Amino acid sequence: MKNFVFQNPTKLIMGKGMISRLATEIPADKKVMITFGGGSVKKNGIYDQVKAALSGHKTVEFWGIEPNPAVETLRKAVALGKEEKVDFLLAVGGGSVIDGTKLISAALLTDQDAWELVVAGKPVTKTVPLAAVLTLPATGSEMNSGAVISRYETKEKYAFYSNYPVFSILDPEATFSLPAKQVACGISDTFVHVLEQYLTKTGVSRVMDRWAEGILQTLVEIAPKIRENQHDYDLMADFMMSATMGLNGFIAMGVDQDWCTHMIGHELTALCGLTHGHTLAIVMPGTMTVLRETKGDKIIQMGERVFGVTEGSRDERIDETIRRVEAFFRSLGLTTRLSEEGVGEDVIAEIERRFTERGVHFGEDGLVDGPTARKILECVK
Q: Percentage of residues in the chain with pLDDT exceeding 70?
């Protein structure tokens, strides 16, 4: 196991009716800007619960943070926050709303443009405190310091890091009314988050391996049941916890990480508008195929422990495990080929160009540059 320093300061508040705790978790003297997405929270009752809990607080609302939050939108929120002199932020929504609010929390305390903070590539630690009410499990943003921000003008998408939420509230009932496609993409996103931290080297940490495998096994078990009954509280609670635990740092302690699938997926979202979790379902089988030599031992371990693949030659077991992973994504109702989404050679060429121009070398071994990204995408054409 590698050396590491771990600290996660986010207070996790889990369960039915816990949104009412906003009244006491946020200090009464704070002026709170509540950030929202497109308005679904007004249909499922979450908005009313939040407003009731904060009836004794001074609040201002900002609506319209879109999937793959755009800096063009977030600049408007920053301007409103400065005008209203808010000193606490509450993100009510999925990962995109929480991600966007992280950038708002940083930009409120500086005269720099929000996009300059993103492209600087440095964590921002001086921020307005923020908390979250999670409505769509997927990104783990409710318990980590990361975000992904888009710029629509230039079709760019980059990671951004600031402070952790002070606390996050997870009520599984908030997920009952989600569209099936969003749930599918959330499960895919969670699954690949775990793979990015797990599907690297063998023998580094038994503890982290088993923890990651436990999340993967849980997702494989509950996914078909969720598709049958999305109103099962315990199933959705397990989904929520899988998403949170998949990217809050717990399974990353002392192990190698990859993230090349995410980097390629971000480009597909920026260029084509595909939902993030869906891009990962397309790219991951290609990543496993192209990097099968360096990842082979871990692929075999995953096949045995997660999918029960124990027979055949080394190559046969690798092939079968990749097939099982792709079949899992397809069982969610997601396509796994670029051609199925109308993505062609022009997009592959542009991603290769961008990676080559930036001089990137992604992956635990730094093997994924522009030409390798092309190979991965050509595998899933």
A: 100
Nearest to 256 by CA among 362, 371, 160, 360: 362
Of the candidates 133, 120, 158, the residue with the CA atom closest to the CA atom of residue 50: 133
Q: Pull the structure tokens for residue 203.
A: 């023998």
User: Alpha carbon of 349 to those of 50, 232, 277, 342, 359: distances in Å?
Assistant: 46, 44, 22, 15, 15
What's the pTM? 0.95
pLDDT tens, 47-81? 999 999 999 999 999 999 999 999 999 999 999 99
Average pLDDT over residues 150-160: 94
- The mean pLDDT value for 5-13 works out to 96
Residues 280-301 have a mean pLDDT of 98
Distance CA 244, CA 10 (A): 11
Residue 130: partners with Cβ closer than 8 Å, 6 or more residues away:
88, 89, 90, 91, 101, 102, 105, 163, 165, 166
Q: Quick check: 97 and 91 in contact, CB under 8 A?
A: yes
Q: Is 88 left (phi over 0), alpha (psi -120 to 50) or beta?
A: beta
Nearest to 34 by CA among 112, 101, 95, 96: 101
Query: 332, 223 in Cβ contact below 8 A?
Result: yes
Tokens at 301, concatenated: 């371990």
Helix axes 276-290, 314-331, angle to 10 degrees: 170
Sorted by sequence, the CB contacts under 8 Å of residue 198 that are 6+ apart come out as 208, 209, 212, 213, 216, 251, 255, 298, 302
Phi, psi of 130 (to 5 degrees): -135, 155
Domains identified in the chain and CATH numbers? 11-175 (3.40.50.1970), 180-379 (1.20.1090.10)
Residue 342 has pLDDT above 90, yes or no: yes
Give pLDDT, residue 39: 84
Residue 212: which H helix or E strand, with range? helix 206-228
